[in-house]
Design a protein that fits this description.
By secondary structure, the chain is mainly α. Helix content is about 65%, strand content about 0%. Bound molecules: heme C (HEC).
């Protein structure tokens, strides 16, 4: 009897945890553009909104994409941003620029 009660209270203690886990599973997925841009936040601030180096959020996606393409064209051995831009495919640069432009 004593043992049964222990098992039951154990299950009750577990319930909030299980519910929290279920709620977490329903959280909408992080947009791919934000995941790709998360590498930028350490220098350009969370979500690109500063403080830090130039604010990169809320600009036109085309403008940011063009800047990144120019930096990428700088080639190995060039500046800091060139090294970052080189790590992405053009499609990824487009995707993260697009996401940054949605940030106000
Ligand atoms: C290690 C720090 C660092 C990281 C990480 C970084 N940047 Fe930069 N970024 C800079 C610095 C410094 C400048 C200004 C100097 C330069 O142009 O090289 C800059 C400039 C820029 C500019 C030009 C802004 C303007 O108005 O001229 C853009 C756009 C930009 N970064 C986008 C990005 C994106 C997108 C990422 C992520 C893929 C990123 N940066 C990651 C340091 C960083």
């Amino acid at each position: 009897m004593q043992c049964k009660r222990l098992v039951l209270s154990g299950a009750a203690a577990l319930l909030p945890f299980l519910l929290a886990t279920a709620a977490q599973a329903q959280t909408p997925p992080v947009p791919a553009g934000r995941l790709l841009a998360s590498n930028c936040f350490q220098c350009h601030g969370t979500n690109g909104k500063g403080p830090g180096f130039e604010r990169i959020a809320g600009k036109s996606s085309l403008e940011v994409y063009k800047e990144l393409k120019e930096m990428k064209a700088g080639g190995e051995g060039q500046g800091l941003m060139t090294k970052h831009a080189l790590g992405y495919t053009d499609a990824q640069l487009r995707e993260l620029s697009q996401w940054l432009s949605t940030q106000r």
